[in-house]
Amino acid sequence: MTTHNGRSGNGSGDLDLLRAEIRQTRAELGQTVQALAAKTDVKSRVRLSAARTRQRLREQAVQAVTEARRTDFRSAMPAILLVAAATTAVVAWLMTQGRRR
């Protein structure tokens, strides 16, 4: 009987090497379980996505305000209104997604 790495399956392999392989396999399985648990944590993923979206919208708002200060306020008004509308739409969508789960 031979295992996948060519050693005899009758117990004649190096015991320390076998123990090291078992420790390595356990560590890899632990990492896999943690990764799967993180993927199934929907609430945390939604919160992270919402935080990223908020940050991106804040940056866009700052950019729009900066641009508005550089130009005539009346010509920048559509951009400010667009950012405000987009922010409101994203926040409303995120709130409805959170309630569905």
Keywords:
101 residues; mainly alpha; 2 domains; elongated
Question: Structural class, from secondary structure content?
Answer: mainly alpha
Estimate percent helicity.
over 70%
Report the average pLDDT across residues: 81
Topology order in helix (H) and strand (E) letters? HHH
Task: Please sum up the structure shown.
This protein has helices at residues 15-40, 42-70, 73-100. It is an all-alpha fold and 101 residues long.
Strand and helix layout:
Elements: H1 15-40, H2 42-70, H3 73-100
Please describe what this structure looks like:
The chain has 101 residues and is mainly alpha-helical. It folds into two domains: 1-40; 42-101. 82% of the residues lie in helices and 0% in strands. The protein contains three helices and no strands. It has helices at residues 15-40, 42-70, 73-100. Helix 2 (42-70) packs antiparallel against helix 3 (73-100). The radius of gyration is 27 Å and the shape is elongated.
